[in-house]
Amino acid sequence: MSPIRCLLLSSLTAVLVACSSAPQTGGSTASAPATSSPRPLHDGPPSYMQDVSQIPDAVPTPHTGAYKASPYTVLGQRYHPMQDGRNYREEGTASWYGTKFHGQNTANGELYDLYGMTAAHKTLPLPSYVEVTNLENGRKIIVRVNDRGPFYSDRIIDLSFAAAKKLGYADQGTARVLVQGIDPVAWQQQNNPSYLVTREAVSAAPVAAALPPEPVENVQTGLYLQVGAFSSNQAAEALRQRVQGVVGSNVWVSPVQVDTRTLHRVRVGPLSSQDEARRMIETLRVANLGTPTLVTVN
Q: What Rg value do the Cα atoms of the chain yield, rounded?
């Protein structure tokens, strides 16, 4: 049987570690329990097997808020997270975690989804994006690091079930992998030339905050989520279609003139309340569609 998985419960003043037994994956990942969903005694794969080949990789999105990179202690060992993980590169053993942690809070405060393309790491800043290569079969994926772990043995990363399945090692539990940090700005500039975010904008303020909240014709007044802004209408439309496939609300492209340029903003809404907006933000995060900004159209 595979080793014990440990669950880290942390607060500002203390860290309590509780251990359960005999998971299939052998990792140990830090997550705070969500009391609304019961947890199985043992970790493992879901009873319903979704076709993970249809699940897209995480899309590296420049982060405009604070990173979670403070020192912490687990099982008597002190960890000092990196302040910048873009140049990170390491080979080692990867494990995965599944049903026992599904629906629980990650160390980043998000809900863990075993079908999301996410991962846990001991020292990368949260959130981070990494490319993971299975050195045994050459498969590659991109995941969003939003949790802490694994804290067992020499394992360097704990992937979601879906990520491990896409890499082809979910059945055996572990694999030898290469993990490489990703610079989201450079990735966007290389893979999406029309993307407007620059390194200076990321360090200064969210892109959405710099966009004028001008009214848009034929749009109902209310709360909206802005998912992205592009100089290319084709890029905006592509994102609109992806978002529309995830959420039930209206998704539309809103053009706005900024100096001599026309920006095409992808927005969701109108939304009925801030509670609905928070739920929608979490839905889009789980779907690896970035972190939307709440805006108001007057």
A: 20
Closest CA to 184 of 291, 97, 284: 291
Q: Is the peptide bond before 125 cis (omega within 30 degrees of 0)?
A: no
pLDDT tens digits for range 226-257: 888 777 777 778 888 888 878 766 888 888 77
Scanning the structure block, which residue is given the tokens 């809103």? 254
195, pLDDT greater than 60: no
- Residue 98's CB is within 10 A of a number of other CB atoms, namely 25
Best mean pLDDT range from 1-5, 54-58, 145-149, 255-259: 145-149
Quick one: three-class SS letters along 158-211? EEEHHHHHHHCCCCCCCEEEEEEECCHHHHHHHHCCCECCCHHHHHHCCHHHHC
The pTM of this model reads 0.58
> What pLDDT was estimated at residue 134?
97
Residue of 289, 229, 228 lying closest to 263 (CA atoms): 229
Q: Which residues, 6+ apart, have CB-to-CB distance to 160 below 8 Å?
A: 96, 97, 98, 112, 113, 114, 115, 116, 117, 118, 119, 143
**Pairwise CA distance, residues 286 & 106, whole Å:** 12
Do 256 and 295 meet the contact criterion of CB atoms below 8 Å apart?
no
The confidence band for 12, taking pLDDT boundaries of 50, 70 and 90, is very low
Token pair, residue 37, equals: 């969903």
CA dihedral 224→204→127→91, nearest 10 degrees, is: 140
Residue 139's pLDDT band (boundaries 50, 70, 90)?
A: very high
